[in-house]
Design brief:
Layout (H helix, E strand, L loop, with lengths): L6 E5 L2 E5 L10 E4 L4 E6 L6 H5 L3 E2 L3 H5 L4 E7 L3 E5 L5 H6 L2 H11 L16 H14 L5 E3 L2 E2 L7 E2 L2 E3 L6 E7 L1 H49 L17 H53 L1
Parallel strand pairs: 7-8
Antiparallel strand pairs: 1-2, 2-3, 3-7, 4-6, 5-11, 6-12, 8-11, 9-10
Helix pairs in contact: 4-5
């Protein structure tokens, strides 16, 4: 497919062909030359996996592809392909598109109608990206779509990588399954895991040391407290004798009971003697009084 009488410019290995009011080019598009190498990252290295899923999304560089998987696949484009430049002037495409496609262009590709030069913000969404590609493949003359670098949302920062999408998987041929990058990434992952494990081990060691230190401080504090409760000779500040054993306690209790009982008997005996003495005193006084009355009668 060829468009003529257009304004051309080069973006990497892509040739940007701009829309021109004086010819039949209605929207900006990229020309992807045959034999161009493309890359795709995946996490499935099962033989025949790519032939089954027939991938349609690719990257210009290995680094960009590696963000989508640890296994790197390399492809070559069989034929010249024309890809809609959704990051450029596509006003005519936008006007003719249904509402759902217009919303995707606005929300996911930062398109603003009649403002081809605005800064586009790319919000990648697997479902929406495929929906747009399906519409382009089924309703236009393009072989897919492509983009130059685009801004990411401000909250993420940075740039979104170049994109290449191709409707028909038969337009590319798988050349090399390159797992060297997977090995490198796995080695990096192993190194990172080792560093993480060492960090965790170091944290655990520090925690154990802190526990030991705390136990040592608690023990020292206890010893100091006990020392403060002792005099210089190692005796307790209290003048009381050492607390007796259980057997000593029972004997002491028995002795106290015996002493109490003896005291009660002694007291009772004393009380009886007092009563006898009082009776004798009373009897003596009565006798004296009787004798005095008799003498008085004689006189």
């Amino acid at each position: 497919m060829e468009f003529i009488n257009s304004t051309h410019s080069q973006i990497g290995f892509l040739e940007l062909i701009r829309a021109n009011e004086n010819d039949d080019v209605d929207n900006d598009y990229y020309k992807l030359p045959a034999d161009t190498h493309l890359y795709r990252g995946d996490n499935n290295e099962t033989p025949g996996h790519l032939s089954k899923i027939k991938p349609r999304f690719f990257a210009y560089t290995k680094d960009a592809a590696n963000t989508y998987g640890e296994i790197l696949f390399k492809f070559a484009v069989k034929n010249d392909l024309l890809l809609l430049a959704v990051d450029k002037n596509i006003d005519n495409f936008y006007k003719e598109a249904p509402e759902n496609i217009k919303m995707i262009l606005e929300n996911n590709y930062g398109y603003i109608p009649n403002d081809a030069n605005n800064t586009r913000v790319r919000v990648s969404d697997y479902g929406k990206d495929n929906e747009l590609l399906n519409y382009i493949c089924n309703n236009t003359k393009f072989d897919g779509y492509a983009t130059d670098l685009m801004d990411k949302p401000r909250i993420e920062g940075g740039s979104f990588h170049h994109e290449i999408t191709i409707c028909d998987y038969s337009n590319i041929s798988e050349m090399v399954e390159n797992i060297s990058d997977k090995t490198t990434r796995m080695n990096q992952s192993i190194i990172q895991e080792g560093v993480k494990a060492r960090m965790i081990s170091e944290i655990d060691r520090e925690k154990r040391e802190e526990k030991k230190m705390q136990k040592r401080q608690d023990r020292e504090h206890k010893e100091i407290t006990e020392f403060k409760g002792m005099n210089l000779f190692g005796d307790s500040d209290s003048e009381d004798e050492e607390e007796p054993s259980e057997g000593g306690k029972r004997r002491a209790l028995k002795k106290r009971k015996s002493t109490t009982k003896s005291a009660k008997k002694k007291k009772a005996k004393t009380m009886r003697k007092k009563k006898v003495y009082k009776k004798k005193q009373t009897k003596t006084r009565k006798k004296q009084a009787h004798k005095t009355r008799r003498i008085g009668r004689k006189h």
